[in-house]
Design goal:
Number of domains: 1
Mean pLDDT: 89
CATH class: Mainly Beta
Largest sheet: 22 strands, antiparallel, barrel
CATH superfamily: TonB-dependent receptor, beta-barrel domain
Oligomer: single chain
Shape: globular
Distance between the termini: 12 Å
Length: 633
Amino acid sequence: MSRLSGIVLALLAAAPAAAQENAVKSAADAFGQRVGTEQSGLYSESQVRGFDLNDSGAYRIDDAYFSRASQLDDTVLAGVGVRVGVNAARLAYPAPSGVVNYRLREAGPVNQLRLGAGFRDFGTQVVQGDGSYRAGDFSLAGGFVWRPLLRFAQGYKGRGFSFGAVGAWNVAPGQRVRLFGSVSQRGYDGDYAVVPSGAAPPPRLKTFHQYSPAWAETRAVNTNLGVLYDGQVDGFTIDLAAFHSVFDIDINDFTLIFADPLGRASATTYRTPGRATRADSVEARLGRTFETGDVSHLLTVSVRGGRTITGLTSSTVLPLGAFDLRGDDPPDGPATPWSGTRGRDTAEQTTASVGYGLAWRDRAELRVAAHRTRYDKAVLSTAGVKTRRVSESTHYNVSTVVKLSRRTDLFGSWVTGLEEAGVAPTTASNRDAVLPPVEAEQFELGIRHALTPKLTLIGALFDVSKPTQGFREDQSFGLVGQVRHRGVEASIAGEVDARTSVVLGAVAFQPRVTGPLVAAGLVGSHDAGVSHVVVNANAERQLGAGWSVDAGFSYLGGRWADTANTIRMPAVTTLSLGARRRFTLAGRPAEFRVLSSNLTGAKGYLAAPSGLLSPIAPRTIRAVLTLTIGPNG
């Protein structure tokens, strides 16, 4: 096959799941690992130790600073991991709430193309694939996912398509340049959520039922572009990165259903026009390692910068009227075109860092760093009011790992940092207002012990505190006090034997909100939308004749549904079972993956920190067949 045709095959190849992802085998711990559509561990890209990472913005791409406007598409990803505890000790730029690290795809050892088709959760139809191509010092990996029928747990229906590729070029010995790009488009028939209006949860929603008006619509495009350089020159390590991230929503019709425990409900649709969020980020790191006897020293300096421009719009409010949630749908109401005003929020952040690392043989490591940050925020509100705020602050991190024995390490860390606070939710009087950043602090002490050469236990005590958001007396959303999460977490991950892999994790913490609004009785002492106890277990067992089976267990403790702590949602327990079969089809390697989720049939609602309720994802099954083709298939 010619070089050109090989490149075309790789570019037309396809997505994460086509390689039949395995989050259990790739997990280094139980704190969160995602490969394609499969997830294992306690935490996710959204929430770590009870804190929302969508707000804090602690994202990295192969450890490079990433200011994210939209989620990085799976077509360019090898996987996603949550970094906390001992696995965050060596980060050049840690964050108090934890870090989510995106790992870019790399071309495999042979040129090939994998194509797959089948069904994802809730009846979503999918055609997908991924490709890998190498030619000398150049390589290419990427994929696509086409979903002609896209279905969500809430009953939304639509379609989607995503495409992405990662190119790598070894420009010289020890020097590499990588470029990536991805685009993901989706459209469906509107969003909705439930707001409780009584002292108890509303009745359950119908399964897979769309409660938005018939004319409702949501369309959006995510785009991410980036370039990374890593190299070694005259004893120095150099890392450079630049990223451009865009979330462009063309239209968003969002329906809020206000319902009491008896099912008496009313609905309002908020019609919002097209708006975009664009984030640019850059980073330059320079490091030098030198030895003095048995001690290795690492000196680093770095500069990071980010700029995020968020389009603000008012919404056209369309009351739909009253209905009975126990059997009826909201009235459709008229589809009035949007009319309103626009604004803009611009945030610029620059951080200069200096760090020092020390390693004494393989017995002890120490990392210290200082970070000076300038934060500049300018807002043109939808009311036409201009405001600006500039702040400068210094933050620090210290971490250490001490080897107590051949199998046991003790670790600890202290991290302070500036984190984003997100935007006000739809139900707030200041809807979509971009909140000011907050300063957070984390203490941690833990132990890592090798139970066997391939099975590791990690346990830690942690204390994370920062200002928290919630609803104030005037129904605006903003800072309402200080929240602290003190808790314990544990992880067991690895191979029990040659055929069995496990990822077992648990976390329990005591949340505490303090401040004047809490003292006045207007805000409760626990933050909303957070499970204080989480247990997660995944296991996979290899069988004979190419078969393997796997199972997953998840427990999410009860959550408060509102800032005032008047409505508590019950705990949720779910179970999943799956199987893989590797075989030969028409003389080519093939794999069939089937996974059933929520076999316990858990029903009800999950509460978000914003106070919105969404239905628990119902029982579902996915099945995908993948075939490997190409020059070396």
